[in-house]
Amino acid sequence: MGASKDVELTDELHAYIVDHGLPPDGVAQWLIGRTQELGSVAEMQIPPEQGALLTLLARLVRARLIVEVGTFTGYSTLCLARGLATGGRVLTCDLSAEWTSIAQQAWRQADLADRIEVHLRPAAETLASLPEEPVVDLAFIDADKPGYIGYWDLLVPRLVPGGVLAVDNVLYGGTVADPRVVGNAAAIRAFNDHVRADSRMDAVLLPIADGLTLARKHDDTSGAST
Question: pTM (2 decimals)?
Answer without folding.
Answer: 0.93
